[in-house]
Amino acid sequence: MSSDRKPSLHFTADCWINDPCAPGYDPVTALYHVFYQCNPHGTVWGSMSWGHLTSKDLVSWTPSTKPALIPDQPYDRAGVFTGCMAPPANFEQSSLKVIYSSVRHLPFHWSTPPYPRDAAGLAIAESRDNGKTWMKCSENPILAGEPKGLQVTGFRDPFLAEWHALDRFRDQKSMYGLVSGGIEPNGPTAFLYSVPYENLSEWHYLCPLVNIPARFQPSPKWSGNFGVNWECANFLTLECQTNNRVCLIFGAEGDVEREHIRSFKSDAHIPPRTVRSLLWMFGNLRVENNLVSVDYTHSGYLDCGSLYAASSFFDPVSKRYIMHAWIPEEDITASYAKRKGWNGALAIPRELFLLSIPNVTRALHSPLSEIASVEKVPDQGALLTIYTLGIRPIEEVSRLRKRCGRVCQRKHISLPSPTTGASHALCSTLFRAWDLEAEITIDPSCCFEVGFHIRHNSDMSICTTITFSLQKETISINKERSTYDPNVRNCLEEGPFTLFYGLDNLGVEPKDKLENLRIRIVSDADILEVFANDRFALATMVYSPEDCRPASISAFAKGTRESAVIEDVTIWDGLSAAGR
Protein backbone atom coordinates (compact mmCIF):
# COMPACT_ATOMS: atom_id res chain seq x y z
CA MET A 1 0.00 0.00 0.00
CA SER A 2 1.02 3.61 -0.52
CA SER A 3 3.17 5.27 2.13
CA ASP A 4 0.56 8.06 2.01
CA ARG A 5 -1.55 5.76 4.17
CA LYS A 6 0.85 6.21 7.07
CA PRO A 7 -0.17 8.68 9.77
CA SER A 8 1.51 12.08 10.04
CA LEU A 9 0.80 12.83 13.71
CA HIS A 10 0.68 9.39 15.28
CA PHE A 11 3.63 7.05 15.64
CA THR A 12 3.58 3.65 14.03
CA ALA A 13 6.36 1.31 12.92
CA ASP A 14 6.85 -1.02 9.97
CA CYS A 15 5.74 -3.99 12.06
CA TRP A 16 3.30 -4.98 14.81
CA ILE A 17 3.23 -2.60 17.79
CA ASN A 18 1.13 -2.60 20.94
CA ASP A 19 1.54 -1.26 24.50
CA PRO A 20 3.47 1.97 25.09
CA CYS A 21 6.02 1.36 27.83
CA ALA A 22 8.14 3.37 30.26
CA PRO A 23 7.19 6.94 29.39
CA GLY A 24 9.28 9.51 31.20
CA TYR A 25 11.48 12.57 31.11
CA ASP A 26 15.26 12.76 31.45
CA PRO A 27 16.28 16.10 33.00
CA VAL A 28 19.90 15.55 32.00
CA THR A 29 19.20 15.63 28.26
CA ALA A 30 15.78 17.38 28.41
CA LEU A 31 14.36 14.52 26.35
CA TYR A 32 11.09 12.64 26.73
CA HIS A 33 11.23 8.88 26.29
CA VAL A 34 8.61 6.29 25.48
CA PHE A 35 9.08 2.68 24.48
CA TYR A 36 6.59 0.37 22.80
CA GLN A 37 6.10 -3.36 22.58
CA CYS A 38 6.66 -4.65 19.08
CA ASN A 39 7.35 -7.65 16.90
CA PRO A 40 10.32 -6.49 14.81
CA HIS A 41 9.82 -9.41 12.42
CA GLY A 42 6.26 -8.94 11.17
CA THR A 43 2.79 -7.42 11.38
CA VAL A 44 1.35 -10.04 13.75
CA TRP A 45 1.91 -10.46 17.50
CA GLY A 46 5.10 -12.30 18.49
CA SER A 47 8.76 -11.98 19.60
CA MET A 48 7.78 -9.24 22.05
CA SER A 49 10.55 -6.64 22.13
CA TRP A 50 10.80 -2.93 22.95
CA GLY A 51 11.18 -0.17 20.38
CA HIS A 52 12.30 3.23 21.65
CA LEU A 53 11.33 6.85 20.88
CA THR A 54 12.70 10.19 22.09
CA SER A 55 11.29 13.69 21.77
CA LYS A 56 11.93 17.25 22.86
CA ASP A 57 8.26 18.25 22.70
CA LEU A 58 6.09 15.10 23.09
CA VAL A 59 4.78 15.32 19.51
CA SER A 60 7.82 14.95 17.22
CA TRP A 61 9.39 11.58 17.97
CA THR A 62 12.70 10.11 16.84
CA PRO A 63 12.73 6.29 16.73
CA SER A 64 15.78 4.18 17.47
CA THR A 65 17.09 2.19 14.52
CA LYS A 66 16.84 -1.15 16.32
CA PRO A 67 14.96 -2.56 19.32
CA ALA A 68 16.13 -1.35 22.71
CA LEU A 69 15.30 -4.67 24.41
CA ILE A 70 14.80 -8.13 22.93
CA PRO A 71 13.91 -11.48 24.59
CA ASP A 72 17.42 -12.91 24.83
CA GLN A 73 17.77 -14.10 28.44
CA PRO A 74 16.45 -17.24 30.19
CA TYR A 75 14.20 -15.13 32.42
CA ASP A 76 12.62 -13.22 29.47
CA ARG A 77 12.96 -15.75 26.66
CA ALA A 78 9.19 -15.68 25.98
CA GLY A 79 8.97 -11.91 25.72
CA VAL A 80 9.82 -8.45 26.99
CA PHE A 81 6.38 -7.25 28.07
CA THR A 82 5.13 -3.90 29.36
CA GLY A 83 7.02 -1.83 31.92
CA CYS A 84 7.83 1.59 33.35
CA MET A 85 10.66 4.08 33.77
CA ALA A 86 12.14 4.92 37.15
CA PRO A 87 10.86 8.39 38.16
CA PRO A 88 13.14 11.45 37.76
CA ALA A 89 13.85 11.60 41.51
CA ASN A 90 15.75 8.34 41.08
CA PHE A 91 17.86 9.38 38.09
CA GLU A 92 21.60 9.43 38.47
CA GLN A 93 23.60 11.76 36.25
CA SER A 94 24.61 8.97 33.89
CA SER A 95 21.90 6.36 34.25
CA LEU A 96 18.35 5.71 33.08
CA LYS A 97 16.50 2.64 34.31
CA VAL A 98 13.38 0.82 33.19
CA ILE A 99 11.54 -2.07 34.84
CA TYR A 100 9.72 -4.57 32.65
CA SER A 101 7.72 -7.79 32.74
CA SER A 102 10.18 -10.58 31.98
CA VAL A 103 8.18 -13.49 30.56
CA ARG A 104 9.74 -16.92 30.72
CA HIS A 105 6.70 -19.03 29.94
CA LEU A 106 3.79 -18.76 27.48
CA PRO A 107 0.91 -19.16 27.04
CA PHE A 108 -0.92 -17.78 30.05
CA HIS A 109 -4.30 -16.09 30.18
CA TRP A 110 -6.98 -15.36 32.76
CA SER A 111 -9.46 -17.48 30.76
CA THR A 112 -7.36 -20.68 30.94
CA PRO A 113 -6.67 -21.26 34.65
CA PRO A 114 -4.62 -22.12 36.51
CA TYR A 115 -2.08 -19.38 35.84
CA PRO A 116 1.37 -21.04 35.65
CA ARG A 117 3.48 -20.21 38.69
CA ASP A 118 6.26 -17.65 38.04
CA ALA A 119 5.45 -17.38 34.32
CA ALA A 120 6.35 -13.69 34.43
CA GLY A 121 8.60 -11.74 36.77
CA LEU A 122 10.25 -8.33 36.84
CA ALA A 123 13.60 -7.27 35.40
CA ILE A 124 15.60 -4.04 35.13
CA ALA A 125 17.48 -2.59 32.17
CA GLU A 126 19.85 0.37 32.40
CA SER A 127 21.31 2.92 30.01
CA ARG A 128 24.48 4.87 30.74
CA ASP A 129 24.57 6.73 27.42
CA ASN A 130 21.36 8.77 27.67
CA GLY A 131 19.16 6.00 26.31
CA LYS A 132 21.11 5.08 23.18
CA THR A 133 21.83 1.54 24.36
CA TRP A 134 20.36 -0.60 27.14
CA MET A 135 21.86 -3.37 29.26
CA LYS A 136 19.92 -5.82 31.41
CA CYS A 137 21.06 -5.91 35.02
CA SER A 138 22.92 -8.85 36.49
CA GLU A 139 20.45 -9.09 39.43
CA ASN A 140 17.61 -10.01 37.08
CA PRO A 141 15.00 -11.14 37.61
CA ILE A 142 14.40 -8.84 40.57
CA LEU A 143 11.09 -10.66 41.14
CA ALA A 144 10.71 -14.26 40.04
CA GLY A 145 6.93 -14.03 39.95
CA GLU A 146 3.73 -13.34 41.83
CA PRO A 147 3.43 -13.22 45.66
CA LYS A 148 3.59 -16.58 47.39
CA GLY A 149 0.35 -18.13 48.56
CA LEU A 150 -1.84 -16.47 45.92
CA GLN A 151 -3.45 -18.06 42.88
CA VAL A 152 -3.42 -15.18 40.42
CA THR A 153 -5.14 -14.60 37.09
CA GLY A 154 -2.23 -12.50 35.87
CA PHE A 155 0.93 -10.76 37.06
CA ARG A 156 2.58 -8.24 34.75
CA ASP A 157 2.98 -4.59 33.67
CA PRO A 158 4.97 -2.94 36.49
CA PHE A 159 4.36 0.71 37.33
CA LEU A 160 6.60 2.73 39.68
CA ALA A 161 6.07 6.24 41.07
CA GLU A 162 6.12 8.38 44.18
CA TRP A 163 2.93 8.46 46.26
CA HIS A 164 3.23 11.14 48.95
CA ALA A 165 -0.22 10.56 50.45
CA LEU A 166 0.65 6.92 51.07
CA ASP A 167 3.97 7.97 52.60
CA ARG A 168 2.01 10.02 55.13
CA PHE A 169 -0.34 7.14 55.89
CA ARG A 170 2.56 4.73 56.42
CA ASP A 171 4.82 7.31 58.10
CA GLN A 172 7.74 6.33 55.90
CA LYS A 173 9.12 7.48 52.57
CA SER A 174 9.55 5.21 49.58
CA MET A 175 8.45 4.72 46.03
CA TYR A 176 5.54 2.42 45.26
CA GLY A 177 5.15 -0.17 42.57
CA LEU A 178 2.09 -1.83 41.09
CA VAL A 179 1.95 -5.10 39.20
CA SER A 180 -1.39 -5.74 37.50
CA GLY A 181 -3.45 -8.90 37.65
CA GLY A 182 -6.15 -10.55 39.71
CA ILE A 183 -6.75 -13.18 42.38
CA GLU A 184 -8.86 -16.30 41.93
CA PRO A 185 -11.72 -16.35 42.69
CA ASN A 186 -11.89 -12.83 44.16
CA GLY A 187 -11.49 -10.56 41.16
CA PRO A 188 -9.14 -8.05 39.51
CA THR A 189 -6.55 -6.07 41.42
CA ALA A 190 -3.10 -4.52 41.35
CA PHE A 191 -0.40 -5.89 43.66
CA LEU A 192 1.21 -3.10 45.71
CA TYR A 193 4.93 -2.98 46.54
CA SER A 194 7.18 -0.54 48.37
CA VAL A 195 10.48 0.17 46.62
CA PRO A 196 13.36 2.03 48.32
CA TYR A 197 14.81 4.98 46.41
CA GLU A 198 18.34 3.66 46.85
CA ASN A 199 17.71 0.19 45.40
CA LEU A 200 15.22 -0.38 42.59
CA SER A 201 15.76 -4.13 42.72
CA GLU A 202 14.10 -4.44 46.15
CA TRP A 203 10.34 -4.76 45.64
CA HIS A 204 8.68 -5.50 48.99
CA TYR A 205 5.16 -6.87 48.65
CA LEU A 206 2.53 -5.09 50.75
CA CYS A 207 -0.94 -6.27 49.66
CA PRO A 208 -3.55 -6.18 46.89
CA LEU A 209 -4.46 -2.52 46.34
CA VAL A 210 -8.17 -2.98 45.62
CA ASN A 211 -10.81 -5.46 46.72
CA ILE A 212 -13.39 -5.53 43.94
CA PRO A 213 -15.46 -8.55 42.86
CA ALA A 214 -15.06 -10.05 39.41
CA ARG A 215 -16.97 -8.22 36.65
CA PHE A 216 -17.94 -5.38 38.97
CA GLN A 217 -19.93 -2.74 37.06
CA PRO A 218 -21.31 0.20 39.07
CA SER A 219 -23.48 1.43 36.18
CA PRO A 220 -24.59 -0.45 33.05
CA LYS A 221 -24.11 2.70 30.96
CA TRP A 222 -21.75 5.18 32.59
CA SER A 223 -19.08 2.87 33.98
CA GLY A 224 -17.35 0.00 32.25
CA ASN A 225 -17.15 -3.54 33.53
CA PHE A 226 -14.08 -4.09 35.74
CA GLY A 227 -13.50 -7.61 34.38
CA VAL A 228 -11.58 -10.42 36.08
CA ASN A 229 -7.99 -9.35 35.42
CA TRP A 230 -6.30 -5.96 35.18
CA GLU A 231 -3.48 -4.85 32.92
CA CYS A 232 -1.31 -1.71 32.94
CA ALA A 233 -2.67 -0.28 36.21
CA ASN A 234 -1.28 3.16 37.19
CA PHE A 235 -2.00 5.36 40.21
CA LEU A 236 -2.24 9.16 40.03
CA THR A 237 -2.96 11.91 42.54
CA LEU A 238 -5.01 14.56 40.73
CA GLU A 239 -5.34 18.06 42.17
CA CYS A 240 -7.67 20.97 41.44
CA GLN A 241 -7.29 24.03 43.67
CA THR A 242 -7.59 22.60 47.21
CA ASN A 243 -9.18 19.33 46.10
CA ASN A 244 -7.40 16.12 45.23
CA ARG A 245 -8.45 12.62 44.22
CA VAL A 246 -6.70 9.26 44.07
CA CYS A 247 -7.17 7.90 40.57
CA LEU A 248 -6.39 4.48 39.11
CA ILE A 249 -6.29 3.86 35.37
CA PHE A 250 -6.26 0.30 34.05
CA GLY A 251 -7.20 -2.08 31.29
CA ALA A 252 -9.94 -4.55 32.28
CA GLU A 253 -9.77 -8.04 30.78
CA GLY A 254 -12.64 -10.49 30.84
CA ASP A 255 -15.45 -8.01 31.11
CA VAL A 256 -18.79 -8.29 29.32
CA GLU A 257 -18.70 -7.06 25.74
CA ARG A 258 -20.53 -3.81 25.16
CA GLU A 259 -23.88 -4.17 23.40
CA HIS A 260 -23.07 -2.06 20.33
CA ILE A 261 -20.06 -4.29 19.60
CA ARG A 262 -21.71 -7.59 20.50
CA SER A 263 -24.73 -6.90 18.30
CA PHE A 264 -22.76 -5.64 15.30
CA LYS A 265 -23.10 -7.91 12.26
CA SER A 266 -20.34 -8.12 9.68
CA ASP A 267 -19.61 -10.23 6.62
CA ALA A 268 -15.87 -9.78 7.08
CA HIS A 269 -14.07 -12.99 8.06
CA ILE A 270 -12.23 -11.45 10.98
CA PRO A 271 -11.91 -12.86 14.52
CA PRO A 272 -14.01 -11.00 17.11
CA ARG A 273 -12.41 -8.18 19.05
CA THR A 274 -10.71 -8.93 22.35
CA VAL A 275 -13.20 -8.27 25.14
CA ARG A 276 -11.59 -5.53 27.22
CA SER A 277 -12.06 -1.92 28.30
CA LEU A 278 -9.85 1.02 29.25
CA LEU A 279 -11.19 2.48 32.50
CA TRP A 280 -10.51 4.86 35.37
CA MET A 281 -11.54 4.81 39.01
CA PHE A 282 -11.53 7.34 41.85
CA GLY A 283 -11.16 5.94 45.35
CA ASN A 284 -10.40 6.70 48.97
CA LEU A 285 -6.93 5.74 50.16
CA ARG A 286 -7.05 3.81 53.43
CA VAL A 287 -4.52 2.03 55.64
CA GLU A 288 -5.84 -0.36 58.26
CA ASN A 289 -3.82 -2.98 60.15
CA ASN A 290 -0.87 -2.15 57.86
CA LEU A 291 -2.95 -3.08 54.79
CA VAL A 292 -3.32 -0.43 52.11
CA SER A 293 -6.44 -0.15 49.97
CA VAL A 294 -8.11 2.20 47.53
CA ASP A 295 -11.85 1.93 48.13
CA TYR A 296 -14.06 2.56 45.11
CA THR A 297 -16.06 5.79 44.84
CA HIS A 298 -16.54 6.66 41.11
CA SER A 299 -15.44 5.37 37.70
CA GLY A 300 -15.81 5.76 33.97
CA TYR A 301 -14.32 5.08 30.56
CA LEU A 302 -10.80 6.39 29.99
CA ASP A 303 -11.57 5.93 26.30
CA CYS A 304 -14.82 4.72 24.74
CA GLY A 305 -13.25 3.24 21.61
CA SER A 306 -10.63 0.57 21.06
CA LEU A 307 -7.79 2.41 22.85
CA TYR A 308 -5.95 0.22 25.36
CA ALA A 309 -2.82 -0.27 27.48
CA ALA A 310 -2.55 3.29 28.82
CA SER A 311 0.71 4.28 30.47
CA SER A 312 1.10 7.56 32.34
CA PHE A 313 3.83 9.62 33.98
CA PHE A 314 4.07 12.91 35.83
CA ASP A 315 5.96 15.43 33.71
CA PRO A 316 8.22 17.43 36.06
CA VAL A 317 8.56 20.22 33.48
CA SER A 318 4.89 21.06 32.90
CA LYS A 319 3.54 19.53 36.15
CA ARG A 320 1.01 17.48 34.18
CA TYR A 321 0.04 13.82 34.13
CA ILE A 322 0.58 12.66 30.55
CA MET A 323 -0.80 9.43 29.15
CA HIS A 324 0.27 7.36 26.17
CA ALA A 325 -1.85 4.48 24.84
CA TRP A 326 -2.16 1.98 22.01
CA ILE A 327 -4.71 2.02 19.19
CA PRO A 328 -5.06 -1.63 18.08
CA GLU A 329 -6.19 -2.80 14.66
CA GLU A 330 -8.58 -5.68 15.33
CA ASP A 331 -11.02 -4.86 12.52
CA ILE A 332 -8.83 -5.92 9.59
CA THR A 333 -7.59 -9.26 8.30
CA ALA A 334 -3.98 -10.34 8.82
CA SER A 335 -3.42 -10.13 5.06
CA TYR A 336 -4.67 -6.53 5.01
CA ALA A 337 -2.23 -5.60 7.80
CA LYS A 338 0.64 -7.35 6.00
CA ARG A 339 -0.18 -5.55 2.77
CA LYS A 340 -0.38 -2.26 4.66
CA GLY A 341 3.00 -2.91 6.25
CA TRP A 342 2.20 -1.99 9.86
CA ASN A 343 -0.26 -2.92 12.59
CA GLY A 344 -1.14 -0.66 15.52
CA ALA A 345 -0.30 2.92 16.47
CA LEU A 346 0.25 5.12 19.51
CA ALA A 347 -2.44 7.69 20.28
CA ILE A 348 -1.51 11.34 20.55
CA PRO A 349 -0.45 11.97 24.16
CA ARG A 350 -3.26 13.07 26.47
CA GLU A 351 -3.34 15.11 29.65
CA LEU A 352 -5.19 13.64 32.63
CA PHE A 353 -6.46 16.02 35.30
CA LEU A 354 -9.17 16.59 37.89
CA LEU A 355 -12.03 18.41 36.17
CA SER A 356 -14.46 20.48 38.24
CA ILE A 357 -17.72 21.93 36.88
CA PRO A 358 -19.42 24.40 39.27
CA ASN A 359 -23.07 25.46 39.57
CA VAL A 360 -24.52 22.29 38.06
CA THR A 361 -28.24 21.64 38.47
CA ARG A 362 -28.84 18.50 36.36
CA ALA A 363 -27.86 16.52 33.27
CA LEU A 364 -29.73 16.23 29.98
CA HIS A 365 -31.84 13.20 30.88
CA SER A 366 -30.06 10.86 33.31
CA PRO A 367 -30.41 11.61 37.02
CA LEU A 368 -27.05 12.72 38.37
CA SER A 369 -27.31 9.95 40.96
CA GLU A 370 -27.12 7.37 38.15
CA ILE A 371 -24.02 8.80 36.46
CA ALA A 372 -21.23 6.79 38.09
CA SER A 373 -18.51 8.83 36.39
CA VAL A 374 -19.24 12.08 38.26
CA GLU A 375 -18.85 12.98 41.91
CA LYS A 376 -21.47 15.44 43.16
CA VAL A 377 -20.45 17.91 45.88
CA PRO A 378 -23.15 20.24 47.29
CA ASP A 379 -22.55 23.92 46.58
CA GLN A 380 -24.84 26.88 47.28
CA GLY A 381 -28.48 25.94 47.73
CA ALA A 382 -29.44 23.20 45.30
CA LEU A 383 -26.35 23.75 43.14
CA LEU A 384 -23.64 21.13 42.79
CA THR A 385 -20.00 21.06 41.82
CA ILE A 386 -19.21 18.08 39.63
CA TYR A 387 -15.83 16.34 39.78
CA THR A 388 -14.71 13.82 37.18
CA LEU A 389 -11.62 12.75 35.27
CA GLY A 390 -10.52 15.36 32.76
CA ILE A 391 -8.93 14.14 29.55
CA ARG A 392 -7.74 16.07 26.50
CA PRO A 393 -4.91 16.12 23.95
CA ILE A 394 -1.76 17.76 25.30
CA GLU A 395 -1.52 21.40 24.24
CA GLU A 396 1.62 20.69 22.21
CA VAL A 397 -0.57 19.02 19.57
CA SER A 398 -2.45 22.30 19.03
CA ARG A 399 0.83 24.10 18.37
CA LEU A 400 1.21 22.04 15.19
CA ARG A 401 -1.68 24.04 13.73
CA LYS A 402 0.68 26.98 13.18
CA ARG A 403 2.39 25.14 10.34
CA CYS A 404 -0.61 23.39 8.77
CA GLY A 405 -1.27 23.49 5.03
CA ARG A 406 -4.54 25.42 5.13
CA VAL A 407 -7.23 26.65 7.54
CA CYS A 408 -11.00 26.64 7.09
CA GLN A 409 -13.16 28.60 9.55
CA ARG A 410 -16.91 29.13 9.73
CA LYS A 411 -19.10 30.92 12.30
CA HIS A 412 -22.78 31.04 13.27
CA ILE A 413 -24.18 28.16 11.22
CA SER A 414 -27.78 27.40 12.20
CA LEU A 415 -29.00 23.84 11.60
CA PRO A 416 -31.26 22.41 10.34
CA SER A 417 -31.36 25.29 7.87
CA PRO A 418 -34.28 26.35 5.65
CA THR A 419 -31.83 26.67 2.73
CA THR A 420 -29.30 23.84 3.16
CA GLY A 421 -31.46 21.40 5.13
CA ALA A 422 -30.10 19.15 7.86
CA SER A 423 -26.46 19.36 6.74
CA HIS A 424 -24.04 22.11 5.80
CA ALA A 425 -20.86 21.57 3.76
CA LEU A 426 -17.79 22.96 5.51
CA CYS A 427 -14.76 22.14 3.38
CA SER A 428 -12.80 19.44 1.59
CA THR A 429 -9.55 18.22 3.11
CA LEU A 430 -6.51 17.78 0.88
CA PHE A 431 -4.14 16.16 3.36
CA ARG A 432 -4.13 12.94 5.36
CA ALA A 433 -4.05 14.69 8.76
CA TRP A 434 -6.42 17.39 9.97
CA ASP A 435 -7.76 18.76 13.24
CA LEU A 436 -11.31 20.10 13.75
CA GLU A 437 -12.53 22.07 16.73
CA ALA A 438 -16.11 23.32 17.15
CA GLU A 439 -18.40 24.87 19.73
CA ILE A 440 -22.13 24.23 19.33
CA THR A 441 -25.13 25.74 21.12
CA ILE A 442 -28.02 23.29 21.31
CA ASP A 443 -31.70 23.75 22.13
CA PRO A 444 -32.43 20.47 23.95
CA SER A 445 -36.19 20.91 23.63
CA CYS A 446 -36.14 20.45 19.85
CA CYS A 447 -32.71 19.15 18.77
CA PHE A 448 -32.19 15.38 18.76
CA GLU A 449 -28.76 14.92 17.18
CA VAL A 450 -25.84 17.02 16.06
CA GLY A 451 -22.53 16.05 14.51
CA PHE A 452 -20.27 15.82 11.50
CA HIS A 453 -20.05 13.73 8.35
CA ILE A 454 -16.34 13.34 7.62
CA ARG A 455 -14.16 11.74 4.94
CA HIS A 456 -17.13 11.68 2.59
CA ASN A 457 -17.34 11.83 -1.20
CA SER A 458 -19.76 13.92 -3.23
CA ASP A 459 -22.70 11.48 -3.14
CA MET A 460 -22.08 10.36 0.49
CA SER A 461 -21.67 6.74 -0.60
CA ILE A 462 -18.39 6.88 1.33
CA CYS A 463 -18.87 8.55 4.70
CA THR A 464 -18.04 8.33 8.40
CA THR A 465 -20.47 10.00 10.79
CA ILE A 466 -19.76 11.35 14.28
CA THR A 467 -22.98 11.95 16.23
CA PHE A 468 -23.91 13.38 19.61
CA SER A 469 -27.35 12.00 20.45
CA LEU A 470 -29.14 14.10 23.04
CA GLN A 471 -31.82 11.47 23.54
CA LYS A 472 -29.40 8.57 24.06
CA GLU A 473 -26.71 10.70 25.75
CA THR A 474 -23.99 9.14 23.60
CA ILE A 475 -21.30 10.09 21.13
CA SER A 476 -20.92 7.55 18.34
CA ILE A 477 -18.85 6.93 15.22
CA ASN A 478 -20.79 5.18 12.47
CA LYS A 479 -18.42 3.52 9.99
CA GLU A 480 -21.07 1.61 8.02
CA ARG A 481 -20.16 3.46 4.80
CA SER A 482 -16.51 4.18 5.63
CA THR A 483 -15.30 1.52 3.21
CA TYR A 484 -16.62 -1.47 1.29
CA ASP A 485 -13.39 -3.45 1.51
CA PRO A 486 -14.27 -7.06 2.53
CA ASN A 487 -11.08 -7.20 4.62
CA VAL A 488 -12.40 -4.52 6.98
CA ARG A 489 -15.07 -4.72 9.68
CA ASN A 490 -16.85 -1.37 10.04
CA CYS A 491 -17.79 -1.74 13.68
CA LEU A 492 -19.79 1.00 15.37
CA GLU A 493 -18.04 2.89 18.19
CA GLU A 494 -20.08 4.50 20.95
CA GLY A 495 -19.66 5.88 24.44
CA PRO A 496 -21.75 7.64 27.12
CA PHE A 497 -21.70 11.43 27.19
CA THR A 498 -24.10 14.07 28.46
CA LEU A 499 -24.22 17.83 28.85
CA PHE A 500 -24.94 19.58 32.14
CA TYR A 501 -27.29 22.40 32.99
CA GLY A 502 -25.89 25.22 35.08
CA LEU A 503 -27.42 28.25 36.71
CA ASP A 504 -27.45 31.29 34.43
CA ASN A 505 -27.53 34.53 36.43
CA LEU A 506 -27.31 36.91 33.47
CA GLY A 507 -31.06 37.40 33.00
CA VAL A 508 -33.69 39.04 35.19
CA GLU A 509 -34.33 35.71 36.86
CA PRO A 510 -31.80 32.90 37.26
CA LYS A 511 -32.54 29.91 35.03
CA ASP A 512 -31.06 26.63 33.89
CA LYS A 513 -28.76 26.90 30.87
CA LEU A 514 -27.31 23.94 29.00
CA GLU A 515 -23.56 24.04 28.48
CA ASN A 516 -22.33 24.16 24.88
CA LEU A 517 -20.94 21.09 23.16
CA ARG A 518 -17.21 21.51 22.55
CA ILE A 519 -15.97 18.83 20.21
CA ARG A 520 -12.56 18.10 18.72
CA ILE A 521 -11.84 15.61 15.95
CA VAL A 522 -8.31 14.56 14.98
CA SER A 523 -8.14 12.57 11.73
CA ASP A 524 -4.80 11.12 10.65
CA ALA A 525 -4.76 8.57 7.80
CA ASP A 526 -6.55 5.49 9.26
CA ILE A 527 -6.70 6.95 12.78
CA LEU A 528 -9.58 8.91 14.26
CA GLU A 529 -9.70 10.45 17.75
CA VAL A 530 -12.72 12.35 19.11
CA PHE A 531 -12.81 14.48 22.27
CA ALA A 532 -15.65 16.41 23.92
CA ASN A 533 -15.82 18.97 26.74
CA ASP A 534 -12.53 17.83 28.30
CA ARG A 535 -14.18 14.68 29.68
CA PHE A 536 -14.85 12.34 26.74
CA ALA A 537 -12.41 10.53 24.45
CA LEU A 538 -12.84 7.91 21.74
CA ALA A 539 -10.04 6.55 19.55
CA THR A 540 -10.52 4.09 16.72
CA MET A 541 -9.37 3.09 13.25
CA VAL A 542 -11.39 4.09 10.17
CA TYR A 543 -10.17 2.61 6.89
CA SER A 544 -11.38 5.10 4.30
CA PRO A 545 -10.51 4.30 0.65
CA GLU A 546 -7.22 5.68 -0.66
CA ASP A 547 -8.95 7.27 -3.64
CA CYS A 548 -11.37 9.26 -1.43
CA ARG A 549 -9.31 12.45 -1.54
CA PRO A 550 -10.12 15.25 -1.44
CA ALA A 551 -12.59 14.17 1.22
CA SER A 552 -15.30 16.44 2.53
CA ILE A 553 -16.52 17.48 5.97
CA SER A 554 -20.12 18.54 6.63
CA ALA A 555 -21.96 19.52 9.80
CA PHE A 556 -25.50 18.33 10.49
CA ALA A 557 -28.29 18.50 13.03
CA LYS A 558 -31.63 16.75 13.40
CA GLY A 559 -34.58 18.47 15.02
CA THR A 560 -36.70 21.50 14.36
CA ARG A 561 -35.33 24.36 12.30
CA GLU A 562 -32.26 26.13 13.73
CA SER A 563 -32.26 24.03 16.91
CA ALA A 564 -28.44 23.87 16.84
CA VAL A 565 -26.02 26.70 16.15
CA ILE A 566 -22.38 26.05 15.34
CA GLU A 567 -20.93 29.14 16.96
CA ASP A 568 -17.46 28.45 15.61
CA VAL A 569 -15.79 25.63 13.71
CA THR A 570 -12.17 25.60 12.52
CA ILE A 571 -10.41 22.92 10.50
CA TRP A 572 -6.62 22.87 10.29
CA ASP A 573 -5.75 20.75 7.25
CA GLY A 574 -2.29 19.33 6.61
CA LEU A 575 -0.89 18.80 10.11
CA SER A 576 2.42 17.01 10.51
CA ALA A 577 4.75 16.18 13.35
CA ALA A 578 8.37 16.62 12.34
CA GLY A 579 10.23 13.34 12.19
CA ARG A 580 7.33 11.32 10.75
UniProtKB/TrEMBL annotation:
Family: Belongs to the glycosyl hydrolase 32 family.
SMART domains associated with the record: Glyco_32
Protein name stated in the entry: Glycosyl hydrolase family 32 N-terminal domain-containing protein
Keyword vocabulary terms for this entry: Glycosidase, Hydrolase, Signal
GO molecular function, one term: sucrose alpha-glucosidase activity
Cross-referenced Pfam families: Glyco_hydro_32C, Glyco_hydro_32N
One biological process term in Gene Ontology: sucrose catabolic process
